[in-house]
Amino acid sequence: MPDFNTTFHEDGFSALTDRFDLVVIGGGMAGIRTACASAGAGLKTALIVKDGRALGGRYLRHTLGLCYLHAFVKTTIDCQNAGRMGIRTSGLNVDLNQTLADQTRVITAYGVGLDRDLINAGVTVIEGTAYPKQGGRVDITQDGTLVRSLSADRVVLAVGSRHVKHKRHERFDRVLSDDDITHPNQIPGDLVIAGSGAAACEIACIYARLGSRVTIITKADHVLEGIDAQIVGRLEEQMKKVDIVTHTKSTVVDVYKDSLGSIHIEIEQDSGKRETLFCSDVYLIPKAQPRLETLEDLPLVIDDGKIAVDESMRTNIDGIYAVGSAVRGGTDISRVTAQARALVAALTGGETARVSDYLCATTLRTIPEIACVGLTDKQARAFYKDVRIGLAPLGADGKGLLDDKKQGFVKVIADGEYSEILGVHMIGDDALELIGQAQAIIAAEGTLQDFDRYVLPAPGLSGALYDAISKVEVD
């Protein structure tokens, strides 16, 4: 850990680094991105981390671990399809130990890169537990003993969150942990996932293709909410093709293990009907709970379990800011990056870079992938009188035909009056790579006519976006 102490007071505290323009508390991705952006803007910045060996937090350990498994599964699918191109193999064998070793190598390399980013930015990294006070003071303890006090013009709370069981699941102990899911030492034969949303869908798609028989149980009407209905429908179709079973409008009421080692899952439907499922493993989607235990001396406004902030990430306390999963909308890396930019712009007197959900892409590493930015057609119709839609296959161009990836589509939503592009939603292989182009168009308030000036590579994936835009009917 870099800690640039050179001169000390009689009490042992550093004379050079005890005073900062900005102190960031938390070594997760929100804290790291904010600290690097702050130091890059010329502010004297300190980052306080509880454990210097765990830089990157849950993103490094679990999110990146799941990203690796997604890439791994895509590679196995490509290998299985290689015979169509005349590539003969004697069979596909997987050495899970080697896979996990390579996963560890990738995650470790990413962590080293985070260390390097902090050093290059000139961020002072201090290890310990931080207790912020009003007035810009931050006390740092190690093993319960005060070892250092810092003062800062401003303090950023990037304290992150931890995953906890829902109350109804607290007595269930026969379940897989997050580590078991993202770093598996064996592939479950029958995996039940209790919960919905992005995590449930990503895990289901990955493990179904690793050989597990997957079942999803959710209280919701669909496995995904807040996503374009046509996208959700196509994903559910593709999940059924790999035998993923979904029980909607259902709640897990009991989990227990019988004398033969089989796990029983009792579920109750909204109608009151009960059913018992059997599996080898069960994973309960946890809920995220902000880490607020070290913030007791700050009279923060908490809204629905999250630290309340304005568009510049300011809390109700002067000089105290908050970013990341402890605030609303800080659950993925793109939004965290936008929060860091908005905060640093506010600190340096620049133009407020408001964090807009409208411009932050929603991405799911399902199979096929999902990527969306802007308004859905339902949202657009609530704000605009004349909404036009264009739809085109993702993978129907020359490149897609070569790759045999034709199960997806791109949906473009536009304002019929001014032809402004309001939203782009896509499902298909490599959708995550294509969504950046749509983000740039929407951020620039681009119109259908603006896109006519683009010259795109052909054959190429971006052709699907052009096709969808060209199919939007205009007067």
Q: How would you describe this protein?
A:
This protein is of the alpha/beta class. It has three domains: 232 residues, FAD/NAD(P)-binding domain, CATH 3.50.50.60; 120 residues, FAD/NAD(P)-binding domain (3-Layer(bba) Sandwich), CATH 3.50.50; 103 residues, FAD/NAD-linked reductase, C-terminal dimerisation domain (Enolase-like, domain 1, 2-Layer Sandwich). Strands 1, 2, 3, 4, 5, 6 and 18 form a seven-stranded mixed beta sheet that branches. It has a five-stranded antiparallel beta sheet with strand order 19-20-23-22-21, with helices on both faces. It has a four-stranded parallel beta sheet with strand order 10-9-8-14, with helices on one face. Strand 8, helix 5 and strand 9 form a beta-alpha-beta unit. Helix 1 runs parallel beside helix 7 and helix 2 packs parallel to helix 5. The radius of gyration is 24 Å and the shape is globular. 39% of the residues are buried. The N terminus is likely disordered.
List the helices and strands and how they pair.
Layout lengths: L18 E7 L3 H12 L4 E5 L7 H24 L15 H26 L2 E4 L1 E4 L4 E6 L2 E13 L3 E4 L13 H5 L7 E5 L3 H12 L3 E5 L11 H13 L3 E3 L2 E8 L5 E7 L4 E6 L1 E4 L2 E4 L11 E2 L2 E2 L12 E3 L10 H15 L14 E3 L5 E5 L2 H7 L3 E8 L3 H6 L4 E8 L5 E7 L3 H13 L4 H4 L11 H8 L5
Parallel strand pairs: 1-2, 1-6, 2-3, 6-18, 8-9, 8-14, 9-10
Antiparallel strand pairs: 4-5, 5-6, 7-15, 11-12, 12-13, 16-17, 19-20, 20-23, 21-22, 22-23
Helix pairs in contact: 1-3, 1-7, 2-3, 2-5
